[in-house]
Specification:
Blueprint: E1 2-7, E2 10-13, E3 18-26, E4 33-39, E5 46-51, E6 58-60, E7 68-73, E8 78-83, E9 92-99, E10 108-111, E11 115-120
Parallel strand pairs: 2-11
Antiparallel strand pairs: 1-3, 3-8, 4-5, 4-9, 5-6, 7-8, 9-10, 9-11
């Protein structure tokens, strides 16, 4: 079992930055692909970014390209999402998840509780 805890969310003005963290306990994250998803009120959960266990391969949703960066530190058992140039439409609860490579929620077996990101205009 892997337990995931997100942190780093908050309220930020448009154009600002936040860095989300996803800390794992239980089993090591090093053998899992880890992804970030987000869910806005009334909307389905959507894929944001994912990173392979090695950290050398990443993939982003179009909405995150050139603004967000996913990275991982397998020694610290933590994955990060650096979010720059934030927009009001980035407002959502952000979740990290561990599992198999892919962009759909069903690929991921372990989920955190989420952290709220609110971007004001």
């Amino acid at each position: 079992q892997v337990q995931l805890v997100e942190s780093g969310g908050g309220l930020v003005q448009a154009g600002g930055s936040l860095r989300l963290s996803c800390a794992a306990s239980g089993r090591t994250l090093s053998s899992y692909t880890v992804a970030w998803f987000r869910q806005a009120p009334g909307k389905e959960r959507e894929f944001v970014a994912t990173i392979r266990w090695s950290g050398t391969t990443t993939y982003y949703a179009d909405s995150a390209k050139d603004r967000f960066t996913i990275s991982r530190d397998n020694v610290k058992n933590t994955v990060y999402l650096q979010m720059n140039t934030l927009k009001p439409e980035d407002t959502a609860v952000y979740y990290c998840a561990a599992g198999r490579w892919g962009t759909v929620p069903n690929n991921y077996d372990y989920w955190g509780q989420g952290t709220q990101v609110t971007v004001s205009s």
